[in-house]
Amino acid sequence: MSRTVFCEHLKKEAEGLDFQLYPGDLGKKIFDSISKEAWGQWQLKQTMLINEKKLNMMDPEHRKLLETEMINFLFEGKDVIIEGYTPPSE
Which InterPro entries match (predicted)? Predict the structure, then answer.
């Protein structure tokens, strides 16, 4: 049985995540107010960021940077800027 949330990123009702994918209060906030679709969009951005900036997930500074980008993307409506990446034109 899927659950519906009001997605803060998409600004609409959408299918919610099946379980909390991120730890702590931020994880709960994501679970309660970010849809599967928006999380999927973030996962793509996150992969690009990790590759672009050669981030190491064992490095607390790198994790903090990613978390900040994630909050900006999911909750502040800011797109992730990837150096040298041009989105395909419509």
Answer: Fe_traffick_prot_YggX, Fe_traffick_prot_YggX_sf
